[in-house]
Write a structure and sequence with these properties.
Blueprint lengths: L5 E7 L12 E6 L5 H8 L18 E6 L3 E5 L10 H17 L3 E9 L6 H12 L4 E6 L9 H12 L9 E3 L8 H11 L1
The protein binds guanosine-5'-triphosphate and magnesium ion.
Amino acid sequence: MLIKEARFLVSNQKADKCPPPKMPEYAFIGRSNVGKSSLINMLCNSKKLAKTSSTPGKTQLINHFLINQSWYLVDLPGYGYAKVAKTQRAKFGKMIMDYLATRENLMCLFILVDSRIEPQTSDLEFMRKMGEAQIPFCLIFTKVDKLKKQGSLQLIEKYMQSLNDDWEELPQYFISSAEKGTGREEILQFIEQIN
Ligand code: GTP
Ligand code: MG
């Protein structure tokens, strides 16, 4: 899919203040620093559409971007970041869950996980929650440019196998690198099919 136009629309703390749910929407979630904002920029061929940082906890609001005047991409804050105060984490958690539970135009949630690390409890719990709430999601393994060539895909396969016990049907997954543009076509094609 060709991205002809990508523009920032609005940032919100509250789900009910988000733009009217009249267009298909795709949101990006995952632990802080996993690369959500960088991936949105990569998909949109932009360096600074979404704000990124090497310090975890950069994205703190629900950010809507309008793509080709016909669908939304949404950048969300990270979950499970230990250095954020407990009260703040609970606030983020509630904001995210309110958003996910009420956005009737959410076509798919992309849950990002770092391709270099073992399955994390916070990610597995979050996936379980999404299953219970019947929110459709896919996985995206990020930062594959940082993987050593040998054995890299085995790591991802092992990750998927570990989900087997929990899920009757495994979620679809993509591999990505915001640095190298890996996965861009596949993810955009997936979105185009649903749109
Ligand atoms: P929060 O908003 O804090 O939750 O983080 P985020 O998930 O939006 O991560 P962000 O996109 O800000 O990226 C975090 C750090 O990872 C930055 O230093 C990025 O440059 C780096 N990064 C993101 N994606 C990639 C990637 O594909 N490859 C490499 N090498 N670095 C990446
Ligand atoms: Mg971010």
